Amino acid sequence: MPDRLSALDASFLYLEDAATPMHVGAVAVFERPRDGFDHEQLLCLVAQRLAYLPRYRQRVLNVPGHLARPVWVDDVDFDLQYHVRRSALPAPGSDEQLFDLVARLMARPMDSERPLWEAYFVEGLSGDRVALVTKTHQAVVDGIGTVELGQLILDTTPQLCEPYEDTWRPRRPPSNAQLVLDAVSETVQQPGALVENVRAFVGDAAATAGKLADAVGGLASVLGPLVRPAPAGPLNTHVSGGRVFAVVRTRLEDYRKIRAQHGGTVNDVVLAVVTGALREWLLSRGESVQVSSTLRALVPMAVLEPGTVEFSPAGLVNNEVEAHLVDLPVGEPNPVLRLQHISHAMRRYTDSGRSVAARAMLKVGGFAPATMHSLAARAAGSFSGRIFNLVVTNSPGPQQPLYAGQARMTEMYPVIPLARNQALAIGVTSYAGKVYFGLNGDRKAVSDVGHLAGMVEDSLDELKGTNW
């Protein structure tokens, strides 16, 4: 039987256009070791690990006439150097130049005729640093058979790339006749699937929405009775093809101290900090902000099924991510009350016993947040953009240093994709005692994303300085 894309994976391809590419990104910054760390060494490292990620050497093949969903086939012309590219900033490159490059790279859709991932080795950073920018399509990382590349190339100790033998041999793709025969065979068993496939491909929004609802299934149940549209505001607008990207670096200890003083969880504090920043951002734009004003965030969270004993690397790939809707109280002027409102809203999810605690996620080997952010983006992409204003993902990471080859990773920022009518997405990751924010915005609607990043720091300082 063909390795056919799931309904959800196919929907990400159908919904993609030039303005809203459906890939998740990440930016990792490394200290170059004394022995160096170059593009060739990265190629060796990635090539060595690709055996664990067969999907990364497969491409999408459409069925003639779109009689069925596309299938995954081996890329007989797979070219690793096409996917692991070399780039450079004019030395000494600044962080601002790096993040401007990230924005441009993330705005570009990927070639659908090749495996749907790319990695950029960026040299020229000041301080003898290098960066790795990755892009992975949401159709690729499903958390079951495939995890994110960053989870496999990072190790807890420095590693040398040893010589290895690549035994991979691509299988010939099926012929058009075989693709049609397989599609007809499946249609006999599920006659309604043919109509859904054709309608979704030609852009029938109702068909696509129905496909998503069927694919997501249980995820929709987390909404409960909450189906009203999201509050109107500047974040819900037509998204252009341009992007802006900004980052924030903060200390994990600050969030822990705020939690100890005012209650809640570290994730609650993160959301409260984001809320305070969004409040100041709205006011700086002259938006009307009343005491009762809110912005609705879609907050994906990892969950465990009842009876699961422990969250482990094996459990991760069989895990589930649920997207919860949380109204952020941007109208509340008191930062502690904002935190209390959010803690109360989040408690109904954490009290269910399904949400994974941060301390459990930290036991996962490898850099699990790279995969968790990809799964979070998939969950967010499964909902109508009319019911939320922005996406906020937060995945705790390991607190010990990680290495790509012999290069120590010093910073890591998620890049969450924008939906068709969402102009801002915020990814958050903790690593080695720091909390890193990646703010991905539409270049037209949120051109001042750098100011918003500064307001995140101000919002954290406001909470730190509040003793009430």
TrEMBL record:
Entries under NCBIfam families matching the protein: acyl_WS_DGAT
Protein name as annotated: Diacylglycerol O-acyltransferase
Pathway: Glycerolipid metabolism; triacylglycerol biosynthesis; Lipid metabolism
One annotated GO biological process: biological process involved in interaction with host
GO cellular component, one term: plasma membrane
Annotated EC: 2.3.1.20
Organism of provenance: Amycolatopsis bartoniae
Keywords in alphabetical order: Acyltransferase, Glycerol metabolism, Lipid biosynthesis, Lipid metabolism, Transferase
Location of the O-acyltransferase WSD1-like N-terminal domain: 5-270
Secretion signal, residue range per the UniProt entry: none
Molecular function per GO: diacylglycerol O-acyltransferase activity
Cross-referenced Pfam families: WS_DGAT_C, WS_DGAT_cat
InterPro entries in alphabetical order: Acyl_transf_WS/DGAT (IPR014292), O-acyltransferase_WSD1-like (IPR045034), O-acyltransferase_WSD1_C (IPR009721), O-acyltransferase_WSD1_N (IPR004255)
Residue ranges constituting the O-acyltransferase WSD1 C-terminal domain according to the UniProt record: 319-464
